[in-house]
Design goal:
single chain; alpha/beta; 2 domains; four-stranded mixed β-sheet; 13 helices; globular; binds fe (ii) ion
Length: 426
């Protein structure tokens, strides 16, 4: 007997009337119209079942700290970094762990079951590293957390930066991070990229670097990152995050840069919610959007994913762990309004993010983890439009969260008993 059978599901690729059979935490079979004995049977009623959401870029050590010790007045990245610097000496491990766990609860409710989080390694006590390693352990039964050693104050700019980062890796942090645009000079930034990529190559670790998170059209760290990825044979293991300066770069230079990124097998993560608010703050009008060139990168064959980056912290006061909100903003900022573009935005918070993460067992095929979400939507386009209710969330066959369907009961003259849940009629 099966553990779970979900029937009459629509899949993200458009197949309808599909049954998903689950046994021992894995998908046993995905086939049309299967009926078999199961301990639990769920009628998807034609709605979308998708693999769970993945956030490939987050800062969990800062999450839910909004207002501590004060709010970012200018709304800029640099004031956010300064504000985080004021907060760091006040951090207590238990409070940080509690905030992170609360966020993980929100995430699971939204069907977000894997998060790559950067963790600041600049403080020699490595308090945030220890706290997030503890969180990773505690949430492991229901959420996959991956940690990136992130030298927020600059690995070369801050005293002991390299040593602190190496100690974080020794403790079990999974990925090498960096912030070249925050080093003292462009040359130091390039040196930090080289040093950190060599460290990753030595240790056999992936790289995920904040790269060119500015409006400076001459910031060139993604070029250096692509070069080092190729030189050191790290293809497929390197990610450039944010890359907002690409928005402002000269078109001729970008026409050379994009094929280099593709050739080096470097993934790019854009963070639309955050960079639409942080960037362009020094502009009058017109104001630049400051998101990296998502459709252009995708058309060159670069793997592009969307991250949430921040929720209620020194950089951003909004957010709820909803990757459909991230995809919704991404498609607006990048003007990816075609049907294909909207579906690519859905991929950016699911399949493409899984590639950044290196997440094995992901997807709706036989043999993969039975970790998927039933949405109150008919397809990925509608899921993004509605930021659809996550009706049920399963991880490895286990039901983790349920949210009642959104349904309005209307009292309309001439339309007794009318209801509305805003999905389009077929
Ligand atoms: Fe970030």
């Amino acid at each position: 007997m099966l553990d779970l059978l979900v029937h009459d599901a629509t899949l993200p690729d458009g197949r309808t009337g599909m049954s998903i059979a689950v046994q021992d935490g894995r998908i046993a079979e995905v086939t049309a119209g299967l009926d078999a004995p199961a301990k639990d049977k769920v009628d998807a009623a034609g709605l979308l079942v998708a693999p769970h959401f993945i956030d490939p870029h987050f800062h969990m050590d800062a999450t839910l700290s909004y207002g501590l010790p004060r709010v970012n007045q200018s709304g800029t990245l640099l004031e956010g970094i300064a504000l985080w610097g004021e907060l760091k000496p006040l951090l207590k491990a238990e409070a940080l762990i509690e905030r992170a766990l609360a966020y993980c609860d929100w995430a699971v409710a939204k069907g977000l079951l894997a998060i790559r989080t950067h963790v600041d390694t600049s403080d020699p006590s490595l308090l945030a590293v220890d706290a997030l390693l503890e969180v990773k352990k505690r949430v492991a039964p229901y959420l996959t957390l991956q940690l990136v050693a992130f030298p927020q104050d600059g690995v070369l700019r801050s005293p002991g930066g390299v040593d602190n980062l190496k100690r974080a890796l020794d403790k079990g942090v999974d990925v090498v991070g960096g912030i070249p645009h925050f080093e003292r000079t462009m040359a130091d930034g390039a040196a930090s990229v080289k040093l950190l990529c060599e460290l990753a190559a030595e240790r056999g670790l992936p790289v995920d670097m904040h790269c060119d998170e500015s409006d400076d059209p001459l910031s060139r760290h993604i070029e250096t990152l692509a070069f080092e990825a190729q030189r050191l044979g790290l293809q497929g293991r390197v990610t450039g995050s944010h890359c907002t300066s690409m928005h402002s770069m000269d078109n001729y230079y970008v026409s050379k840069l994009l094929p280099l990124i593709a050739e080096a097998g470097v993934s790019v993560v854009a963070n639309p919610l955050i960079n639409i608010t942080l960037q362009g703050r020094h502009d009058t009008y017109p104001k630049r959007r400051g998101m990296t060139r998502v459709p252009e990168l995708m058309s060159q064959g670069v793997n592009v994913a969307f991250g949430h980056d921040c929720v209620m912290d020194p950089w951003y006061g909004m957010g709820s762990g909803d990757m459909l909100e991230v995809a919704h903003m991404g498609l607006h900022v990048a003007q990816m309004t075609s049907q294909q573009g909207i579906r690519q935005c859905f991929d950016a918070v699911t399949a493409n993010a899984a590639r950044v993460f290196g997440l094995g067992g992901y997807g709706l095929d036989a043999g993969r983890d039975a970790s998927f979400v039933l949405l109150q939507a008919r397809d990925p386009v509608e899921a993004i439009r509605l930021r659809a209710t996550r009706l049920k969330v399963w991880r490895q066959g286990r039901l983790l969260a349920e949210t009642p369907a959104a349904m309005a009961t209307l009292q309309l003259p001439g339309r007794p008993g009318a209801t509305s849940w805003m999905t389009a009629k077929r």
